[in-house]
Design goal:
- It is a single chain.
- With 557 residues, this protein is of the alpha/beta class.
- It folds into 4 domains: 174 residues, 3-Layer(aba) Sandwich (Rossmann fold); 65 residues, Helicase, Ruva Protein, domain 3 (Orthogonal Bundle), CATH 1.10.8.60; 116 residues, Zinc Finger, Delta Prime, domain 3 (Up-down Bundle); 165 residues, no CATH class.
- Helix content is 50%, strand content 9%.
- It is built from 24 helices and 10 strands.
- The strands form 3 sheets. Strands 2-3-4-1-5 form a 5-stranded parallel β-sheet, covered by helices on one side. Strands 8-9-10 form a 3-stranded mixed β-sheet.
- A hairpin with a 2-residue loop joins strand 8 and strand 9.
- The radius of gyration is 36 Å and the shape is flat.
- The N and C termini lie far apart (77 Å).
Length: 557
Amino acid sequence: MPSMPAEPMPSLGHSADQPARPYRVLARTHRPQRLSELIGQDALVRTLANALHSGRVAHAFLLTGIRGVGKTTTARIIARALNCIGPDGAGQPTPEPCGLCEPCVAIAEGRHIDVLEMDAATRTGIDDIREIVDSVRYAPSSARCKVYIIDEVHMLSEKAFNGLLKTLEEPPPQTIFIFATTEVRKVPVTVLSRCQRFDLRRVEGELLQRHLGEIAAKERVDIEPGALALIVRAAEGSVRDGLSLLDQAIALAGGDGAKIAAAQVQAMLGLADRSRMLDLFEHVAGGAIKEALDCLAELYALGTEPEAVLQDLLEISHWLTRIKLAAEAAEGFGVAQQDVVRGRRLAEALSMPVLARAWQMLLKGLDDVRLAPSPLLATEMVLVRLAYAADLPPPSELIRRLGDGTEERASAAPARAMHDASAPTMQKAPEAPVSPGSFAAAVALFEQFGEPMLHSWLYQAAQLVDFEPGRIELRLAPGTPPDLPGRVAAALGRWTGRRWLVSLAGSDQPAAPTLAEQTAAEKQACIVALAEDPRIKPILEQFPGAAIVDVRPAASR
């Protein structure tokens, strides 16, 4: 069973006769050692602290969350908290382990025999779990509690999970299991139900920026707030990712005593200046294609990745949409005051439909860029489409313009489904007695007089062989109720005041398609015609992959 990897003590310098210790990254140097040092996990800290004080410690914990929020660190803190005996050797379990006693030091260095850590990403089988199950039977050698830490537990095989269940449900005294995972949905519910679960949250931007700023000060590094804000944005709530990026920025700037500017971090991360991205968004929103392409070329020359450009434009379109809904959203985390002013002005100038259209086009464009052999060329084409779309009227205006003729053609197919080919307009609600002049008009009566089931059978499953007022000859699809002809004849007789004969034709007699099939064919013909309409075709060409999928009757004005 592998033990916890050793944590070497931080370097305190070296003399000429003392070899230099290897550099230890910030994520390890500044790893929390006590529950109170965890940031952004207040609920977890409070719950565990109360449990340790009261002695109500669960026998199994499941820690879940994104990478770098402190799952494994929390597991190691729990192990020390349970086994700390204090500097005088008489201490009890505490949320603030002393870090000085033998158990604390041994656990921190990864050499304590009773605190065992396993990486389930590399040891996934039942044999690995059998080692744990066999060792659980023995009492702790020197510690107060035996602690098993299994990282990335979701990687265990099904047999491994099953082999662990019984031990997990009834572990021996003084035995604690701590599981950590980034994919909690892959952990069987039988395991989840046996654990006390803690969801570690992404650390909020302002809190993470303050934390990284304090660490930078300890490292004697002067870093601009804007540079820290860029690192925090890239970290996406992960403390470890933020510390790794800060480490990289310090190395880029020259180490201890360096001054780190926002421009350096932008170059390091391949990001564009937010003000330039707002310039680019304004260009495409205003239809200024040349200016937009020049701006993209400038950003590309500075090292900004084309995909990052579209991601930033997506973020800006979302940000502007939020401002439209709530003006205070402009003053988000890490947004400079001058950008707040520009954002409010842009949001006021652009309508919600235009912003929604930009979001959809950018989202589709992002897929194109990821698949294209040349991301730069694909990004240019996305900007061209966006700029041309800026000249398009709002959707409401487009609908109004189409209403002068195209709209009627679009709505004609569904309406004709209820009529004979010779009836060009929608059948009005009949007033009894009525005399339907076509099969479609007769079928329409069943919907208008509240007979939806009969209407559905006639519309979907009846093929017309012959029709004249008072007589209908049909061919019915298999599965149609056998009493359908009699029920249809009786209903038509009540509504029209005359006798009707509804009969079934033989399978050898020619029959027309069902009304449903006729409607589908007419609708498809209408869609094909609309796609070639000079007012519609340019719109489809502006949105690659777009298609007309339905036509419906126009709402009455």
